[in-house]
Each structure stands twice: as C-alpha cells, then as structure tokens.
C-alpha cells in the first residue's frame, strides 16, 4: 500500500522535512504552500523576516548536511555567493561587556547570505534529490479525529477539498493555525507563551564599496542590562557584492524607516562604527521594516492527547526573536528529529511516532528558546515576560562574567562560540574549563575601540562621511 506524506509549508523546515520523509520510505511527498514560490533567491510574502539579517550557524548547517547527504549544501551556498565567516577572526562584535578580541585560531564558522538565498538553495537541492511535488494551496484544517489525523483540508474556489495522507507535517511557520486545527479535532487547551519585546527590525541593502570586500561582519549588540530599550545594528556580507545592514530596537527604541533616520540611528549606538561604514556606501534598496518578532512557544508536547499521523516542526512549534539568529538552525534540528524517529520506528504507522517527534523537536528548540527569552525579558515594557527569579539573576551574572572574560580570553571566547553556534548545548558553559575561564577573567585589558587591522582602519576612514 502506498504511503503519502503531506507537508504544510515550503520554507526551510518544510523542504527539509520533505527530504526526510522520502528517505524514510514515503511513496509520495506533497508540499503545500499558499505562496507562489519564486524561481530564484527572491523575497516572498510568506517570510515576514526574509528581508532582515539571518545567520546560519555551524550547528544548523551540520544538521542540514546530515539531512541532505552528498548534496554539498555548504559548497552550493558558497558557490551561490554566500560567505563563510569564522567567529574567531571574522567578526567585529561590541557586546554589553565590551569589544570581543579577534583570534587567529580555528573555531566554528557561520554562513551569511540573504534568507531568500538559503531557502532557494535548500529548495532546489531537495527537489533535485527527491521527487517531491510542490503545490500552491491554502490549508484550512485537518481531517480525521482526535486519535488520528487522516489528511488536510484545502481551500478551493468551488468548495474545500480533502487530501488524504498517512503523515501530515505542519511546517507553516510563524503564521501557523495549528491551535485552531487541533480545536477542530476536539483537542483543546494548547498552552502558548509569547514574550514580546516589541522589537522592530529595519534593514537596507548596500553595495560593498571597493576595497571593503573583506571587511569583517560588524555588529553592535543590544544591552539588556541597562534598563533601556534594546538598540543594535549589524553589517553583514551577502551574495552579489552587497551588505545587508539590519537595525533592531525594542519597544521605545525602534529604528525609523526613512534613510536619514536609519543612518542617524546607527550613529547613535554605543559605537558609531556601523553608521561610519554605511555613510560612504551606495544604498541599493529602501529601508524595510518588520514587527513580526516576538518569541512564541506552543507547548504541544504537553498536550494530554496527541493524534497519530500529525507532526509540528520549525516556527510552527517555536518562534524566536530573529535577533539571536537561531530560527533556521532549530528548523533543521526538528527535521533531524523527524528522521531519527522514523528510522527507529521503522515506518509511518508506528504507535506514538508523532508524539515522540513533537517531544523531540520541542527539546531541540528549548536551548534557543531559553537563550532568547532570558535576554528579552530584561528589556523595558516587555510583554509576556516574568520577572527574573533568584536563579535567573545568578545565571545572568555568570553569563555576564563569562562574556566579560571572553573580551580578552580565548578560552572563554571559545565557550561562547561553541554555544552560540549551536554545536554544543548551553551546558557547555558550566564545564569546569568554562567556569575556570570565567573565574580567571580576561588576561588582557578591555579594548575601548574595535579591534581592526591597519588595513581595516584605512577602509573605515575612507568610507566615513560622518565626521564622527
């Protein structure tokens, strides 16, 4: 008997899930998306954060390559114009505790490019490897019962139609309607939590000036410890000889949409380096704003009953403030959980399979959720946050101490790189070597200026039109 899998959403989580389902023995994989998918790396409506900076961390890329074996995904991204940035030497970062030094030693790297390029490369790679069918369709509900999902209901001009499936995966993203769909099956009481700092993202694309092609990724991080709104900015190299410049501000510190205000915002940060860089660069786009940035967690794994044949992955399960750069990686982790559980079960119909996948995907999202929420709750006027308890304050104090040490200690910086790259869990911060590095602190004095090479300083001076 043929086995059909239906995936809702043709984004990153959905296409990776489609690849997993085919490799696990599905005879037919159908991906449904309400958008008309572009033929190239172009922005689409279904990705509200698509115009803003996205970081593909090493842990996430590792998971994607595991899901697409032999495809050379990293090489494909780089061939399409993406950049590989070593965290140890390729980043200028002003943290709340000071500038991080740069080290000429190996460490994890991240890939930077537009979000549209990541989605396009993954989508084309999956479709080359897997005979997946992608249809434009709007899913309006699930069919079946509280015990088992049998398929999806699709909106159609002449009346809704049903599409049967042995397994349905909701990878429809931040705009999922999973709570309503479950209500329609008689499964109520989904617990949700939203932590909303009111973050507004503003992004603009620039042409990389001649001579600045190798200038490091530059970021001025927000400071959650000063009882003021978050304000940050990043200059990130992307494909096509361009810089993607993204600013982020929480409630009360939102960046403006006009070009003059955008530049002024970057210059008023604790260090004006982002504004100095872009003041001499040619803009290639308008300023694009987005307000869809809250952290949202749907605790589906805690439901007393869960239907067979239905799985939820990616942003449909947990959505993060995009400032932390973990969403794409967590989507890949969830798809990896799906693959592992299907392999253990030996088939789509194994009892309890769907519940195990949802629980595993939730665990895979927990670390990123904790890192994002623990920061966002510290900003003024946050909605949905709870005041930090004693344990939270102890954790914050330790994290600050470790970050302060990382400004001049390679050992401490290595811990931060490992955790932020999502190659190791946050428990890495509490290994004896990490705690010793935090206790010892930085052997070097704090740097009051960005750690630029002489050549980079010359580039910055040549671009600066601000007189700062």
List keywords for this structure.
468 residues; alpha+beta; FAD/NAD(P)-binding domain; 2 domains; FAD-bd; single chain; D-Amino Acid Oxidase, Chain A, domain 2; globular; 33% helix; 22 strands; FAD/NAD-bd_sf; FAD-dependent monooxygenase; monooxygenase
Written description of the protein model:
By secondary structure, the protein is of the alpha+beta class. It folds into 2 domains: 4-48 and 115-194 and 294-374, FAD/NAD(P)-binding domain, CATH 3.50.50; 55-113 and 200-290 and 388-468, D-Amino Acid Oxidase, Chain A, domain 2 (2-Layer Sandwich). Helices cover 33% and strands 21% of the residues. It has helices spanning 12-23, 58-67, 73-79, 115-129, 178-184, 259-267, 273-278, 327-345, 353-376, 390-406, 410-420, 432-440, 454-463, and strands at residues 4-8, 28-33, 55-56, 83-86, 91-95, 98-99, 109-112, 133-136, 139-144, 149-154, 161-164, 167-170, 192-195, 200-207, 217-220, 231-238, 242-249, 282-283, 288-290, 295-298, 310-312, 318-319. Strands 5, 6, 14, 15, 16, 17, 18 and 19 form an 8-stranded mixed sheet that branches. The chain has a 5-stranded parallel sheet with strand order 8-2-1-12-21. Helix 1 packs parallel to helix 4. The protein is globular.
Map the helices and strands:
Blueprint lengths: L3 E5 L3 H12 L4 E6 L21 E2 L1 H10 L5 H7 L3 E4 L4 E5 L2 E2 L9 E4 L2 H15 L3 E4 L2 E6 L4 E6 L6 E4 L2 E4 L7 H7 L7 E4 L4 E8 L9 E4 L10 E8 L3 E8 L9 H9 L5 H6 L3 E2 L4 E3 L4 E4 L11 E3 L5 E2 L7 H19 L7 H24 L13 H17 L3 H11 L11 H9 L13 H10 L5
Parallel strand pairs: 1-2, 1-12, 2-8, 5-15, 12-21
Antiparallel strand pairs: 3-7, 4-7, 5-6, 9-10, 10-11, 13-20, 14-17, 14-18, 14-19, 15-16, 16-17, 20-22
Helix pairs in contact: 1-4, 1-8, 2-8, 8-9, 10-11, 10-12
Keywords: Monooxygenase, Oxidoreductase
Protein name: FAD-dependent monooxygenase
Organism: Streptomyces atrovirens
